[in-house]
Design goal:
By secondary structure, this protein is of the alpha/beta class. It has helices at 9-15, 24-38, 47-61, 66-75, 77-88, 99-116, 135-150, 166-174, 187-193, 209-214, 246-259, and strands at 123-129, 156-163, 176-178, 194-196, 204-207, 215-219, 234-237, 265-268, 281-285, 288-291. Helix 1 packs across helix 3. Bound molecules: S-adenosylmethionine (SAM).
Length: 293
Amino acid sequence: MSAVLGMCDGEAVAAVGSGPTLGQAEFQFLRGFVLQQCGIALGEHKHQLVQGRLLRRLRALGLTNFASYCELLRRDPDAELGELASAISTNVTAFFREAHHYDLLVSELLPRWLQERRREGDRLRIWSAGCSTGEEPYALAMVLAEALEQHSCKLDAKILATDLSPQALETARQGVYPLERIAGISAERCRRWMLRGAGEYEGLASVHPRLRELVSIQPLNLLHEWPMRGPFDAIFCRNVVIYFDQPTKQRLFRRYAELLPVGGYLFLGHSESLHGINDDFELIGRTVYRKRA
Ligand SMILES: C[S@@+](CC[C@H](N)C(=O)[O-])C[C@H]1O[C@@H](n2cnc3c(N)ncnc32)[C@H](O)[C@@H]1O
């Protein structure tokens, strides 16, 4: 799976020459802005790529040059931040991506949590931080709903799903996916949790209302203030921090540790690690960490 800024360079190159050019001064401003606001460290070599990605955004805003775009960011950084982040980062995701994490939940963590919490109203909280278009939190909701049914539990169970990108969040809220996007879901789960469209909705599938009940979708920049206080049983922050610089990762993982109880779990993406960054956690499986006492 590609990561943030994992686009193919051909896209950027194709766009060059068909619009305004991103000057060195504007590129340096954008690099500083994106690092400060999103934690994403854009290398010098991303110049053309950023130009290609932002041309579409300039057109959508009716701007004729990058200086005006930078001016807009200076004037009202918060208003444009989500759109900028969407333009330069990738939202690539999939249902049951990195399936071993779901296997651990099903075989070990959910049975244990549900065994420990038998009283009606006991809480269970999972956070999908950087949820993109919703496949991750809805897949989590499937395994959670199945475990709740199996244990006949009436827990207060919720999955918080947050992202910075307005477009990604809109797709997540709609919860409607082309059939090829649900290929990662087993046939049995598809039958149980995905509602196939007919007529004008042919070729689409919508998530079951039970999954919508379990998932709360909210905009959130991981670098800004967080309204929630936790505690969470597990945080999924997978394939989000790949291009974050070291100090940003250190701050973020320290904040995650504050929202997890001792023994709480942090799941990272396949190419991410806490090695040399944070020692609040111990590695207990493939990119799975548990908070130390
Ligand atoms: C590649 S997707 C990963 C989606 C999912 N977690 C997965 O592993 O399949 C990365 C997501 O992180 C989000 N993201 C990047 N920087 C962020 C930030 N500072 N705050 C919140 N979300 C951010 C992006 O908008 C994007 O949707």
